[in-house]
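Q: What would this chain look like folded?
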Amino acid sequence: MKQKHNVSVKNLDIEFSTGTLAGLASGAVTIRSGETTVFVSTTAASALRPGQDFFPLTVDYREKFSAAGRFPGGYFKREGKPTEKEILTSRLCDRPLRPLFPKGFMNEVQVIGLLLSTDGITEPDILMVNGASAALLISDVPWNGPVACARIGQIDGEFVVNPNNDEVLDSDLDLIYVGNESDMLMIEGSAEFISDERFYEALEFAQKAIQPIIEAQKELAKLAGKAKKEFPLVITPKEVTDFCESQAKDQIIEALAFDSYTERKIAIEKIIEGTSAAIEEKFGENKVSSDDIARAFDELQEKLYRQNILDTGKRVDGRGPQDLRTISAENGVLPRVHGSSVFNRGETQALVIATLGTSKDVQEMDGITGGATNKSFILHYNFPPFSVGEAGRFGFTGRREIGHGALAERSLLPILPPEDEFPYSIRLVSEVMSSNGSTSMASICGGSLALMDAGVPISNPCAGISVGLVTEKDDAGKITKYEILTDILGAEDHFGDMDFKIAGSKDGITGFQLDLKIPGIPFNITLEAIKQNAEARAKILGIMTEHLEAPRNELREHAPRINSLQIDPDKIGALIGPGGKNIRRITEVSGAQVDINDDNSGKVLVFASSKESMERAIQEIDICTAEIEVGKTYRGVVRGVKDFGAFVECLPGKEGLVHISELADFRVNKTEDICKLGDEMIVKCIGIDKGKVKLSRKAALEQASESDNDDSGVEEGSEEA
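A: My prediction, written as structure tokens:
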């Protein structure tokens, strides 16, 4: 879409445009790659809301079916609530933008992205982030950008920038990288057991790859950028901050040393209550707002919390920077479910339940931008309010829950067995029972154990851990002192500068996510964090192995049974039978469900609720697909009576002729003297000539007589036998 101003990114097939659409927005950019086009606008409120005490940044990305030339499904032809993909794309965009707004800026900012067209090949999530950065950069909203975003894949050992949907299928790395001119700001993605060293190389490669995108945005800003507005910043009055520190510093230091999250919370609340009364007495009633007091205490806690770590090298719970919290786990904790585990790390606890299903439980994906059309592995993450000791909204799935669930899901996916070896649909549900940091990583650890408890033959256990960061900067904003923290607490996430989550097995990294509260992290710190994370993961995996060394050999009692069979593709028709007759009979007599792949490969899946049901179904399938063999004896059904003999169906759809001379060991004048239609008859195959099967009742009777009427060698014949 050509507009007033157009800037292209060399070698990346990306074009930024502005100047025609949404002229009343603070900033509006259209970004295109291939035939995929995303429009992004940004607008800031001119005034603060009454009582505003936080920065309300809202990032919303929406996909309309019109972008793909389609009607939305359902009776009511209009898009409804945002899909999981739209929410994840919104979060992807939000996280790197947020740290770059000025401190104290609290006017509401809204960033809206609309998918205008899609070619089904180019993923729009990367375009959304780059478009949002460009829209903010050219707008009058104060923001310290630009940033740039790229997807990095690895195909045949080589890094690839912005691979399309088809190329991603061949890639063993899916890294979404966001950075500025010098530092990394945000990453997320998954990998198929990439090493720590190669992972770091991918980050360095990505930092170089995004520079042309940054240059293009700066060029666009020169052409169409607006002067930044002056907005009043919300700053806590210095006299309030100083008074709070003088009154409560020692009490807060003492409270921060409490081991329990709940104890610390209650103690801080009492200190705030007492200090608020002292402030009222000093400054006069209603002279200092409660918002100012709350901010002052939050800033004071942050200052003292960080100072303690940087000065002493000790954390509030007594751990050193690289120490893990106490870890424990329990498996098989719930009856009837297919697999379960409770994973504890300090005060963080995740109860994870595994459910196995059939192919009918696969989640269908109604995507319009390409990618997978269904999912056979699902992880749902739930974060109820009681997990942090609070009363709040319950039963609502928020963006945070969707994001954490997606991270845990993609981290565990690489360890699952191939579907042709383990043809189950799998669902994990992580119920966070208590939270004091790193619940998504606890869900990965607990999820891995629940899978093993369910008997899922995973390649190796997978563990996740988060590392944090506390920094000290000089007046120029350069980091002069820092401490990397392994296994962060909730407060270390809140008051710290980084939350760097990495999951993996002994074979390598499988999932990762980095969020920052500072405007970038140098690469030397990144490398240290990766190494520190790897050491912690190894320790956790060792502890998990002590609880459950390997997947259980058998599925739990109440888990469904699924068996994959391979039959001769030419026998598919025989298995189905006329009008599905044979399939229906197998279902009726065994209680199992039989599915035949549509690709004519001969792959058959059998779903059963019990071992006995499975065995009977397999037996029936073997009968339907077997061939009559010379020398074998069968119990068949007479399907035709002729003057010259009888046609007997020995196996479903397979019959042969018993010549009148072979009906008995005496002379038979009429076939009807021995049998009629529908009679059961024991016969022996005495020959096959040019596809014609020769049967003998006489030979079968002789064999039976010789074995003292032992029927153990008789094959079950037709479907009605």
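The chain has a mean pLDDT of 91.
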